[in-house]
C-alpha cells in the first residue's frame, strides 16, 4: 500500500489518500477526509473507470477507456459547512476531473443524498484523444439522488453504470460515508440493491480450476462507413486468478455482442455480454507495414458477484504484415498479467485493409509451423524406403547377371 499525505484543503483539514495497488490495473481509491480538529468527516473507498466516445477529424467514432488513475490529485475535496455539503473532487490524467456532491435532505434528519456526479475531460490532449474533431473541455452531469441513512456506511461491490451518448462511467467496490459523526466511521452497512440480491444467494466458488472444455469458435466483425473494416474468428477462454481463487470462463459467441472502430493507425474490437461488460482487443500499426495486438482491457462480473477489471496497453502479440491476416490454429496464450490470461483457439484476425469483407492471405503463427514437420518427416521416410528398394533392385540385378555369366 502506497500512501500520500496531501497539503491541507481550506476548511477541510488534512486529506489522507491511500492508493491500494491490487491485481487489477484500475486503482482502489481510499479517502479519509478530516476536519480542522483532525476528526474524520468523510470516508470513501471505490474503484472507477471511464469509456469516452468522440468523433475524429475523418468523421469516424473512436472510443478510449480511462482506467489508470494513479497520478490523481484531490484538490477541492471538502468536509462541508453550513452553506455547502461535502464534496469529493479528483483530478487525474491530462484534464480529467471527477466530482461527487453530498447534501442533507431538508425533509429528513436521518438521511442524506449522494446528490450529483460530474465528469470532465479535455480533448485537447492529443495523446488520449488523437485526431479529435472537437477540441475543448467537455462536462457531463448526472443527477443521482441516492438516499443513504446517516451513521451508516453505503456499500456497493456490484458494478454500477452511468451512461450518456458519449461517456460511460463504471463504479464498483464502493464504500462511502459522508457526514461522519464524532469522527468515527460506522461499521453498519447500507447495501445497494444489487448487493442485497447477491448477498441472499452467494454461489459456491470452486477452489480449484475445473478441467475446461474447448470454447466455441466465434466470428466477429466491425463495420464502418466504408464497410467491414475488421474481421476476427476465434475461440476465447479467460483464465482469472482473483483473491487466490482461479477460474476459467469461456466466451460464448452466441450470446456475445461485437462492436468497435477502425482508424488508420489503430483498430478496436469490443466484445460484451451479460457478465462481460467489455473485452477490448486494440490493434496498432508499427513501422508502417505491420500490425499487432497492442492492448487488452476487460471488465467483467465474477461468479461471486464482484467486479474484475484489468488492462495492459503494452502487449505485442499476433504480429503480421499489413494487408494480410494473422492465423493460428493451435492454442495460444495472451498473457495480459500474472492474474489474467486469454487462451485462443482457431484464431484468425485482420484489423486493417479488409477488402470486400473477406480475409486476405494469412501469416501463420510459429506454433502452426510445426505442422510442416509432418510432411517433411513423411517425405524423408518415403525417400528412405525408395532408396532401399532401389538398392535391393540393383543388388538383385547384379546377382542375376553374375549367375547368367556363370551359366
From TrEMBL:
It is a single-pass type I membrane protein. Disulfide bonds join 156-192, 328-365. The chain crosses the membrane at residues 372-395. InterPro entries: Lamp2-like_luminal (IPR048528), Lamp2-like_TM (IPR048524), LAMP_CS (IPR018134), Lysosome-assoc_membr_glycop (IPR002000). It is found in: Cell membrane; Cytoplasmic vesicle, Autophagosome membrane; Endosome membrane; Lysosome membrane. Keywords: Autophagy, Cell membrane, Cytoplasmic vesicle, Disulfide bond, Endosome, Glycoprotein, Lysosome, Membrane, Signal, Transmembrane, Transmembrane helix. One of its GO terms (cellular component) is late endosome membrane. Residues 374-404 form the Lysosome-associated membrane glycoprotein 2-like transmembrane domain. Residues 215-354 form the Lysosome-associated membrane glycoprotein 2-like luminal domain. Its main location: membrane. The keyword Isomerase does not apply. PROSITE patterns: LAMP_1 (PS00310), LAMP_2 (PS00311), LAMP_3 (PS51407). Residues 1-28 form the signal peptide. GO terms for biological process: autophagosome maturation; cellular response to starvation; protein targeting to lysosome involved in chaperone-mediated autophagy. Belongs to the LAMP family. This is Lysosome-associated membrane glycoprotein 2. It comes from Moschus moschiferus (Siberian musk deer).
Amino acid at each position: 500500500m502506497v500512501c500520500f499525505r496531501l497539503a491541507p484543503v481550506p476548511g477541510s483539514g488534512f486529506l489522507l489518500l491511500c492508493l491500494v495497488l491490487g491485481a487489477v490495473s484500475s486503482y482502489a481509491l481510499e479517502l479519509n477526509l478530516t476536519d480542522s480538529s483532525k476528526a474524520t468527516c468523510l470516508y470513501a473507498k471505490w474503484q472507477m473507470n471511464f469509456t469516452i466516445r468522440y468523433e475524429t477529424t475523418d468523421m469516424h467514432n473512436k472510443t478510449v477507456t480511462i482506467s489508470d488513475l494513479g497520478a490523481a490529485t484531490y484538490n477541492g475535496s471538502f468536509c462541508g459547512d453550513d452553506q455547502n455539503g461535502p464534496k469529493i473532487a479528483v483530478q487525474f490524467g491530462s484534464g480529467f476531473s471527477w466530482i461527487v456532491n453530498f447534501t442533507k435532505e431538508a425533509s429528513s434528519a436521518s438521511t442524506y443524498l449522494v446528490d450529483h456526479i460530474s465528469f470532465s475531460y479535455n480533448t485537447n490532449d492529443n495523446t488520449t484523444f488523437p485526431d479529435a474533431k472537437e477540441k475543448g473541455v467537455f462536462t457531463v452531469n448526472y443527477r443521482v439522488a441516492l438516499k443513504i441513512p446517516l451513521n451508516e456506511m453505503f456499500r456497493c461491490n456490484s458494478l454500477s453504470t452511468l451512461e450518456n451518448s458519449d461517456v460511460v462511467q463504471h463504479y464498483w467496490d464502493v464504500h462511502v460515508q459522508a457526514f461522519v459523526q464524532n469522527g468515527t466511521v460506522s461499521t453498519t452497512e447500507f447495501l445497494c440493491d444489487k448487493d442485497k440480491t447477491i448477498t441472499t444467494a452467494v454461489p459456491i466458488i470452486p477452489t480449484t480450476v475445473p478441467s475446461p472444455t474447448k470454447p466455441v469458435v466465434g466470428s466477429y466483425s466491425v463495420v464502418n462507413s466504408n464497410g467491414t473494416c475488421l474481421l476476427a474468428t476465434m475461440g476465447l477462454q479467460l483464465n482469472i486468478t482473483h483473491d487466490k481463487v482461479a477460474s476459467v470462463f469461456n466466451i460464448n459467441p452466441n450470446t456475445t455482442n461485437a462492436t468497435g472502430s477502425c482508424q488508420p493507425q489503430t483498430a478496436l474490437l469490443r466484445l460484451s455480454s451479460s457478465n462481460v461488460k467489455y473485452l477490448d482487443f486494440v490493434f496498432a500499426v508499427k513501422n508502417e507495414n505491420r500490425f499487432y495486438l497492442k492492448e487488452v482491457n476487460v471488465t467483467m462480473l465474477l461468479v461471486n458477484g464482484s467486479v474484475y477489471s484489468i488492462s495492459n496497453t503494452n502487449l505485442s502479440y499476433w504480429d503480421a504484415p499489413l494487408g494480410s491476416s494473422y492465423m493460428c490454429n493451435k492454442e495460444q496464450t495472451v498473457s495480459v498479467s500474472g492474474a489474467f490470461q486469454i487462451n485462443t483457439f482457431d484464431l484468425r484476425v485482420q484489423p486493417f485493409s479488409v477488402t470486400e469483407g473477406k480475409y486476405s492471405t494469412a501469416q501463420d503463427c510459429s506454433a502452426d509451423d510445426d505442422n510442416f514437420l509432418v510432411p517433411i518427416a513423411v517425405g524423408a521416410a518415403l525417400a528412405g524406403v525408395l532408396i532401399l528398394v532401389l538398392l535391393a533392385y540393383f543388388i538383385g540385378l547384379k546377382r542375376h547377371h553374375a549367375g547368367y555369366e556363370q551359366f
